[in-house]
Amino acid sequence: MKNRNGQDPEFSAISRRRLVKYAGVGATLAAASPLAAAGPAAADDNSRDQGGHGDSGKRVWRAGDHHVHSEYSGSFDTSTNPPKFIKGGDAVYPIVTNAIMAKHFGLSWVMCTDHGGPTHSKVNLEQAYPDLLRSRLLVPGVLQFWGMEFDAPALDHHTLMIPHHADEAQQLYELESRFAKNDPFPADPGRDTEAKMVEFLKAAKDMRRKPLVIAHHTSRSATGLGVYGQDTPREFRNGNNAAPDIYVGFEGAPGHQAGPLNGGARGGYGNYPTHGGFDQMTARLGGVWDSLLGEGRHWWITATSDSHVHWTRGGSDFWPGEYSKTHVLARQDYADIMDGLRNGRIWVGTGDLITSLDVSASNRGNEASVGETLTVSRRNRTDVEIEIRFRPLEGKNANGDRPEVRRVDLITGRVTGPSASLDTDTNPTTKVVARFGPRDWRREGKEYVIRHTLRDVEADLYARVRGTSTDEAEPLADGKESPWDDLWFYSNPVFVKVR
């Protein structure tokens, strides 16, 4: 029997001894990291400034991570029937350790996204979920979503985020057992088709409590620039057409960003690299992301850790929030965080280059922010005022640095409606309309402000912003440089509709 919060009573009766035991795990791991010394103070200061752990009733920028692995990303012994699950076969940390470290690095929300596998739906239901409930009690300051790294039919992995409610475990079990391509045992090749993916999205769309689906490391299997692997623009369009309020975006900055610190590639992109830590589908000006926005699609980008094993212990990962953050404008509330992700109230950044970013478009007293649409009339003057506000990091980031913004770009593209081809991967109208350096912004309180006028706007468009600590005109293909020396932030778009 469950209480009104959907928790078994036994989980509500955790002893003080167990609290100390679990908290000690996180403290030990934190102390083991040479990055930990600079992290907590900076994170705590920033979260107070932004209200990240403060006023839960106010919408402010709340940093989080929707792609984090625990020891339930394991392996399977398939010599037995049913297969035997082996904990810690891939990722190694308990769920509560990830939550402790997320809080340590300034996150307000986090999501456990473990790999699937044969009969993994039962592992999630019977083993992982009870640990999540314990972790929620042990680390109440961090909202901890339930879900998984969904082994999507015909595609690479995706976030499957379940709304927070009493039957969340059963909802995930239903979707994973019915649609995850690796869940059947013996394997079922019929699960691994795009038609099955669309069927999954339609089933999710019809649920009373709607989940979210976000694509992971979309070009990790790509063999060149514009030469895609498991994930293609066509599949994104088909999925978004089937469930536009469910399938809402992809990781702009994938995880595994610490790879170069151990001689590997950022993101684990061993064939074709990331650019400034961002996937080519996002970083390429006028590329896949811009082609989707040019259709008017509400398709958003995020940034995650994909944490499995910390780089100081031989892995390629940072802790949740240590390097990459997805900032959502929301209350400290499960439903509002999901609403912000669903509706694009998001900006993303690496290395805590900045701690807040607001982008708005206005005309004759009307205003819209990221994820929203400003409507202007041709009968009136159609100048659109763009305002960019960002707050620099006041302390030091997790590497002990105090990074500085060297440039901010304002990017626009035309919105022309659905493309003639589902395979379209460019938007030739996308351009950087203005570049700004430190002499171009002025300080207002703790923020820097940039204002720019788009003159005589006569057609639908979108505007988005990016910034960097580098002097690269466009983000360059990544080599073995330290990720701490190559920091970027991106806003999601604000749309302008002319009528």
From TrEMBL:
Biased composition (Basic and acidic residues): 45-60
Top-level taxon: Bacteria
Region annotation Disordered: where it falls in the sequence: 36-60
The name this protein goes by in its record: Phosphoesterase
